[in-house]
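pls ignore typos typing on phone
BIS(adenosine)-5'-pentaphosphate + seq
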Amino acid sequence: MKIVMLGAPGAGKGTQAKRIAAQYKIPHISTGDIFRANIKNNTELGKKAKAYMDQGLLVPDELTVDLVMDRLAQEDCADGYILDGFPRTIPQAEALDRALSAKGEQLDRAVDVDVPDDSIVNRMSGRRACQGCGATYHIQFNPSQKGEFCQVCGEKLILREDDKPETVQKRLSVYHEQTQPLIDFYAGKGILRTVDGTKEMDQVFEEIRKVLEAE
Ligand code: AP5
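k done
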């Protein structure tokens, strides 16, 4: 199964994509996680990406598309994958389409996790992220059982630099301008499914599972 997750920053794409990946035994490919790993390792790509991410802007398509295409060419993607945070612009979506068509393949579903902007700001300020393993928590809705530390790997949890309220507002406006048009793009292909992302996490997961398994 080849799935794209759509939704505003903080809508819960990452939370749900990890669960779907585990359920269907497919790799979870998050461009945000790939960029953050590069920033942590101080790579050239990481240095370039950080300058955009810290401002709430998108990393340019030319840095993003090849990175994803290389990842999709790896062996573990042969039976499918879930893309989280990619594509984020129409040119990225078109590049993905071209790469899939060249192999006679296509996406199965694009799942839009729908959450209004006012709920997003609250979610982001409460999110805590692990710099070690990438796990995410929420101080209210999904706290770590180890308090300020990751319950998976034990590293200290942080508030992401781009989760500060002023940057979240910028990310939301970038989302509406550059990423939301993908909803119509995938609706036009007949593969878009929208789920209500304001519900409790387990309910959102059940809804996603249903739309993935429906004909
Ligand atoms: P990225 O990491 O992809 O960030 P994002 O899309 O802004 O999404 P987030 O990770 O912030 O949120 P999410 O929807 O995954 O929500 P989560 O599950 O964590 O990208 C970061 C940056 O990298 C971008 O701004 C850009 O600069 C760059 N970038 C990445 N990809 C790019 C691309 N393709 N092109 C160009 N640039 C790119 O949930 C949020 C919080 O809410 C958590 O605390 C969670 O516990 C909680 N939560 C989740 N679900 C629920 C629920 N149902 N109820 C209550 N709380 C919930």
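Residues 165-179 form the longest helix (15 residues). Residues 7, 9-15, 30-32, 35, 52-53, 57-59, 64, 85-86, 88, 92, 123, 126-127, 136-138, 141-142, 162, 171, 197, 200-201, 204 surround BIS(adenosine)-5'-pentaphosphate (CB under 6 Å). more later
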